[in-house]
Amino acid sequence: MHFELNHKDPATKARAGVLHTDHGAIQTPIFMPVGTVATVKAVHQEELKKDIQAQIILGNTYHLYLRPGTDILEKAGGLHKFNNWDRPILTDSGGFQVFSLAHRRKITEEGATFASHIDGSKHLFSPEGVMDIQRKIGADIIMAFDECTPYPCTYKYAKRSMHLTHRWLKRCWTHFHNTDPIYGYEQALFPIVQGSTYKDLRKQSAETIASYDSVGNAIGGLSVGEPHEDMYEMTDLVCSILPSEKPRYLMGVGTPINILECIALGVDMFDCVMPTRNARHGLLFTSQGTINIKNAKWKDDFSPIDADAPNPTSRTHTKAYLRHLFAAKEILGQQLASIHNLAFYLWLVGEARNQIIAGTFGTWKDQMVKNMNKRL
Amino acid sequence: MHFELNHKDPATKARAGVLHTDHGAIQTPIFMPVGTVATVKAVHQEELKKDIQAQIILGNTYHLYLRPGTDILEKAGGLHKFNNWDRPILTDSGGFQVFSLAHRRKITEEGATFASHIDGSKHLFSPEGVMDIQRKIGADIIMAFDECTPYPCTYKYAKRSMHLTHRWLKRCWTHFHNTDPIYGYEQALFPIVQGSTYKDLRKQSAETIASYDSVGNAIGGLSVGEPHEDMYEMTDLVCSILPSEKPRYLMGVGTPINILECIALGVDMFDCVMPTRNARHGLLFTSQGTINIKNAKWKDDFSPIDADAPNPTSRTHTKAYLRHLFAAKEILGQQLASIHNLAFYLWLVGEARNQIIAGTFGTWKDQMVKNMNKRL
Questions:
Q1: Which of A59, A302, A375, B309 is the most exposed place for a label (fewest CB within 10 A)?
Q2: Which residues of chain A make contact with B44, given a CB cutoff of 8 A?
Q3: Does the pTM of the predicted model rise above 0.90?
Q4: Within chain A, what is the greatest distance between any pair of CA atoms?
């Protein structure tokens, strides 16, 4: 696996590149639809490929470990075979989900013990165990096991947690390099920068992560409730330290505006449940602003869901139809809205890439941010 | 609109034909997926076309009248434009749904008054009103307003109801011919045979319906709880009376076996919610028998959902994957299962057609019925 950095925007720190994997190339900047439990919710794999043009999807180690379980995934020949997706996959480490369990988890030096949200059964995620699990899941890109700190977080906790994440990274790194891929294609381990919203911690963490000879690096612990200014400040700082020749993945971010702003700071990869989760609640993103499709004002608006969209679903179905599907609580409403939002996110990063290559990203980004702040 | 009867099976009463409409030709025998409220539940229109190869879909007048309402449908330019479906559509008359409301409806000579299942609001469906509504919905084939009798039903009630249906038909027919299509393409009105499970009533009703110069004819009031033997006996009797040069539509039928048996009796068109409803509960139909995909026995069965299926979804996704989606209550499970069952129903009627043309329908049908009785 290797990353080609092809273009740098003259006015911002935005970059365009290609990440080559054994399941195909990923053109960056890229957005990765979240396929929590071996499915991008309400979206058929064919739609992911054809309508949405997803290049890589994400799976959640925590969810996949519980269901279907690593034994089933291993018998299937890995997640790609299990969910019939032959393009690249990235799995997170489970750190974020375990952190979300709040009172149902306990963190020690050894790892994190937690109670399943499904049946309350007790489990331990250790750095070594999570590497083994991700070997069995078989994603192309796998993530180090980290502690994702909440926001707000005291300096003392953030510092202690960051050091724990660094010690866990060392164990992940060692175990990863002492084990082989199970399915014959390469897997790359991305380490994760933590440090909450404290500049000195973020700097220290980024320097630690940069010292590893990884294929790519990730920024964690943001988009957890902090002001956007803090997200941007931390991202900018970390990007200035992480090696420029390696892809940078900002985990769990974010709104379309967050994504554009962070592309401008040098981020190459994003994932977020927002496009699919919002879609299931009838909230749509377009290049002209956001739409609450459940609003009665759309009931006789027979214009396309998004006339500017690149994908057939958003251009051929109308707002009135989609509004009707939500009013009637029809599953197809969630399907069409999910396709629309994901296709928009993929268009957004693809167009950002075009603008970077054309050297016009900065002005385009400012205009897009202005548009997307509108509520239609 | 006209029907070409091309082939008759030598051993049974099965027929193969083509029904030509302004939205394209329908090869019979045919199954029509039910798109209750302007959507075939959980199925994207592109999947209906490509994966399922649906030739015609059904809409429910009762549901469409309540939501989105005929004013919206008229503004949209009809149901085809509203739900982005350019192939033929058939709408039922609302009679069956109103009948299902039980204590929330009252039937008089004028029509049926009922309380909406959504907000309890009061409405009247009259023969003339239902013709107007179906003109506005704009389906290619529209149905006469009838009373669908329950099962069991006394002879006295069935007889009185049948006569009411016949009087309503006369009013429908007159009003239909005194009005024009709104959207520039032809609509055909199919009358409906009633008479419960009483042979003399069915005979009388079929003779009445046959006396109309309609493009096609329908058989109603079956698949409402009566034994299959009664369904077949009534269908056989009615088919022997309805004109052979016109398509025969058996409303709301049924299981794959019901469909094959009724094709053998001379029925050309079918609709039923069973493939989609069962799919949403994890019950799959295949040519080898039925599958309850929620059963734990499938958890590590990595064979295709249906290796013999003609459509990509059923061949490329595995039983283990689909079982996992149901276990995790993921929407995609309902989507894939719905696609599978509908693709199977469309394959079944398409293959029946091939066998009729080849003159081998009878033996093929007997073998299929034997297979499909199995539980896998």
A1: A375
A2: 44, 47, 313, 332, 335-336, 339
A3: yes
A4: 62
Is A359 inside a domain boundary? no
The model's pLDDT over A189-201, given as tens digits with 9 standing for 90+, comes to 999 999 999 999 9
Which residue of chain B comes nearest to A43, CA vs CA? B332
Best A36, A86, A298, A335 residue to mutate vs chain B (most B CBs within 10 Å): A335
- Contact state of A82 with B321 under an 8 Å Cβ cutoff: yes
Which residue type sits at B177?
H
Domain total for chain A?
1
Q: Which of A75, A332, A339 sits opposite B300 (nearest CB)?
A: A75
Return the residue of A nearest to B76 by Cα: A302
Is B227 a domain residue? Answer: yes
- Inform me whether the pLDDT recorded for A100 exceeds 90: no
Q: CB A320 to CB B47 under 8 A?
A: no
B313/A contact by beta carbon, under 8 A: yes
Residue A221 domain-assigned (yes or no): yes
CB B106 within 8 A of CB B113: yes
Q: What is the mean pLDDT of chain A?
A: 97
A281 touches chain B (CB under 8 A): no
Handedness of CA B91, B95, B100, B103 (dihedral sign): positive
Residue B365's pLDDT is what? 98
Q: Which chain A residues are Cβ-neighbours of B119 within 8 angstroms?
A: none
CB within 8 Å of A297: residues ≥ 6 apart? none
Predicted complex: ipTM over 0.90: yes
pLDDT attached to residue A82:
98
User: What are the E-state strand segments in B55-179?
Assistant: 57-59, 89-91, 105-107, 112-115, 122-125, 141-143
CATH number at residue A215: 3.20.20.105
Average pLDDT over residues A22-46: 98
Q: Give the confidence band of A95 by pLDDT, cuts at 50, 70, 90.
A: confident
Q: Give the range of the structural domain holding residue A69, as residue numbers without chain letter.
A: 2-271
A276 in B contact zone (CB under 8 Å): no
Beta partners for residue B286, in sequence order: B289
Q: Residue B267 has which token pair?
A: 């029925």
Instruction: Output phi, psi for A365, to 5 deg.
Output: -60, -45
Q: Count CB atoms within 10 A of the CB of residue B60.
A: 21
Any CB–CB contact under 8 A between B312 and chain A? yes
Would A25 be classed as within a structural domain? yes
pLDDT along chain B (376 residues), means of 10: 97 98 98 97 98 98 97 98 98 90 89 93 96 98 96 97 98 98 98 98 98 97 96 98 98 98 98 98 97 98 96 97 98 98 98 98 97 94
* Contact across the interface for A302 and B46, Cβ inside 8 Å: no
| pLDDT reported for residue A102 | 75
Q: What is the pLDDT of residue A101?
A: 84
Mutation site for B-interface testing, chosen from A75, A119, A324 by largest number of B Cβ within 10 Å: A324
* pLDDT given at position B81: 98
The answer to whether B7 and B356 are in contact (CB under 8 A) is yes
Q: Are B42 and A335 in contact (CB under 8 A)?
A: yes
Share of chain A above pLDDT 70, in %: 100
Q: What is the model's pLDDT at position A104? A: 87
Residues of B in contact with A38 (CB under 8 A): 321, 324-325, 328
Query: Who contacts A183 (Cβ-Cβ below 8 Å, separation ≥6)?
Result: A77, A78, A80, A138
- Tokens of residue B306, six digits: 């249906």
- Partner-chain contact A328 B67, CB within 8 Å: yes
